[in-house]
């Protein structure tokens, strides 16, 4: 390896490690979904039960939905070793982002066998806002890019083999299963990926393909059984988010789907504006940097023109087409989290785009590559500075005021248990359990009130309601109020 190549790889490694910068301070606070995932990881680590007392659940009930198990169980292992903390939880997510970048570099090298192509792909992945933001929060989706690249690495390797062995079948089935159970889009996306394996069908591979599809199909049964036993709970959030209703005709559904699909692959949104939800995306830079998208588009064109008979690339084109489908069934336009497969796939197609570029005329190649690197670093730096500045400004989204003023106000009254009341459609109770845990308070220090039940007279209450009745207010914050219920007569 040349000195220049070595220095380039070191630079990419340092940029990847920059994902650890300002963890866990930025974003400030801890989002309620982060608290829910972390609290359940703690209860699993200590008792093998979720917050409702169910032992070793397949899914975790929370906020009227069911959270996926893989991230929670992995985080439980870390909490068992290091103890529960926001630092450990968010470092885990950031580390998963770094692992995804390293795996993308490995895949780029496997495809191209060139260090320069690998470094440029790694540089782009390290600076991509979409992948960076995905690694900042303790969400189930933080694991998805690493799993998806692992799957593509495996498929790339076996696609060059005439016959797939038992280990190949087991590995492919296992990663498909993890993609299904690690994040909700996987319930549709992973079966589509499994179906796409038929691109590799041949007489010698047919037994292996049938075995993979059979084993993977059997792995879906627990989810179907769980969903049936829990009143269709796994689909509850989908029905809240989708535009599909029983009154709509097939043509109306198809029209809505195509509208959302093309909105989700809009190049202007991807590279210029990004998602509008500031929880998931900030700044004036797109979700993917413009040079990355242009190289990816060039790679797609190159594959269609020159590599369309290669079964691996046929499969990747198929994966690119089906990746936006789960998100396109929901009402939100360009939801970064549910489209998380896209930045991964764009970086895979960036590889042939970069290969085409570096194999062009020498003078043009050097100038163009230098310009691309300069623009990537410039846009990436602008984005990181904007992300750093946006951190303190997003405190209200991540309940930063809960540990700073809401919880201390309730504790200062020296009355336990503290009651928590969430009106229908709102959730915040888990913040009390989580921050109480961090203070060493047992779970019975808090009582979560059912919607139709009132707290005892004189009890200290934290609530996500807009206001309280028959109460003595102590504090009103953006998302919470603290009060005494019907003050005691003295």
Comma- or semicolon-separated keywords:
globular, 490 residues, 7 strands, 2 domains, 6% strand, mainly alpha, 59% helix, 5-stranded mixed beta sheet
Question: Can you describe this structure?
Answer:
This protein has 490 residues and is mostly helical. 59% of the residues lie in helices and 6% in strands. It has helices at residues 3-17, 32-47, 69-82, 86-112, 115-127, 129-134, 144-159, 166-182, 186-196, 206-219, 221-229, 236-241, 250-264, 267-273, 290-306, 311-322, 325-328, 341-358, 362-393, 401-411, 429-438, and strands at residues 60-62, 65-67, 418-421, 446-449, 460-463, 471-476, 481-485. The strands form two sheets. The protein has a five-stranded mixed sheet, with helices on one face. α4 runs antiparallel to α5 (115-127) and α4 packs parallel to α7. The longest helix has 32 residues, at 362-393.
What's this entry about, in short?
The chain is mainly alpha-helical.
How big is the Rg? 24 Å
Oligomeric composition of the shown chains: single chain
Strand order of the largest sheet: 4-3-5-7-6
What's the helix-strand series? HHEEHHHHHHHHHHHHHHHHHHEHEEEE
Q: Give the count of helical stretches.
A: 21
| Approximate shape | globular
Domain module count: 2
pLDDT averaged residue by residue: 93
- SS elements, strand count: 7
Largest sheet: 5 strands, mixed
In whole angstroms, the N-to-C terminal distance is 81 Å
**Secondary structure: helix percent:** 55-70%
Strand content: 5-15%
Structural class: mainly alpha
- Low-pLDDT segments, ≥5 res: none
């Amino acid at each position: 390896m040349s000195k220049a190549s070595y220095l380039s790889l070191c630079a990419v490694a340092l940029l990847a490690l920059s994902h650890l910068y300002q963890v866990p301070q930025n974003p400030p606070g801890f989002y309620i979904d982060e608290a829910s995932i972390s609290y359940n990881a703690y209860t699993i680590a200590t008792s093998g039960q979720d917050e409702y007392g169910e032992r070793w659940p397949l899914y975790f009930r929370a906020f009227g939905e069911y959270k996926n198990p893989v991230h929670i169980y992995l985080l439980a292992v870390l909490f068992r070793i290091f103890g529960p903390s926001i630092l450990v939880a968010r470092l885990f997510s950031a580390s998963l982002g770094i692992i995804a970048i390293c795996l993308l570099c490995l895949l780029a090298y496997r495809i191209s066998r060139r260090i320069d192509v690998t470094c440029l792909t790694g540089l782009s992945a390290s600076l991509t806002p979409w992948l960076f933001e995905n690694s900042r929060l303790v969400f189930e989706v933080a694991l998805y890019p690493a799993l998806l690249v692992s799957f593509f690495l495996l498929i790339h390797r076996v696609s060059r083999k005439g016959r797939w062995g038992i280990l190949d079948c087991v590995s492919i089935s296992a990663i498909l299963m993890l993609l299904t159970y690690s994040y909700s889009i996987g319930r549709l996306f992973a079966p589509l990926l499994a179906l796409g394996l038929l691109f590799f069908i041949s007489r010698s591979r047919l037994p292996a393909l049938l075995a993979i599809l059979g084993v993977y199909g059997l792995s879906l049964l627990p989810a179907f059984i769980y969903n049936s036993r829990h009143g269709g709970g796994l689909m509850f959030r989908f029905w809240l988010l989708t535009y599909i209703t029983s009154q709509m005709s097939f043509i109306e559904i198809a029209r809505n789907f195509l509208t959302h699909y093309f909105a989700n692959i809009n190049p202007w949104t991807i590279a210029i504006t990004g998602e509008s939800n500031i929880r998931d995306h900030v700044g004036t830079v797109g979700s993917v940097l413009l040079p990355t998208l242009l190289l990816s588009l060039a790679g797609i064109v190159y594959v269609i023109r020159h590599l369309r008979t290669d079964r691996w690339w046929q499969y990747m084109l198929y994966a690119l087409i089906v990746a936006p489908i789960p998100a396109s069934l929901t009402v939100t336009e360009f939801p970064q989290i549910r489209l998380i497969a896209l930045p991964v796939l764009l970086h895979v197609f960036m590889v042939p785009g970069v290969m085409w570029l570096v194999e062009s005329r020498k003078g043009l190649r050097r100038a163009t590559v230098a310009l691309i690197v300069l623009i990537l670093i410039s846009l990436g730096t602008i984005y990181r500075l904007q992300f750093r500045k946006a951190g303190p400004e997003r405190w209200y989204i991540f309940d930063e005021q809960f540990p700073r003023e809401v919880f201390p106000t309730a504790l200062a009254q020296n009355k336990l248990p503290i009651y928590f009341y969430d009106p229908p459609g709102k959730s915040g109770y888990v913040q009390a359990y989580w921050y109480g845990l961090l203070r060493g308070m047992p779970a019975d220090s808090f009582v979560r009130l059912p919607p139709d039940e009132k707290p005892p007279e004189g009890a200290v209450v934290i609530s996500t309601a807009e206001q309280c009745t028959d109460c003595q207010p102590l504090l009103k914050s953006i998302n919470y109020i603290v009060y005494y219920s019907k003050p005691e007569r003295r």
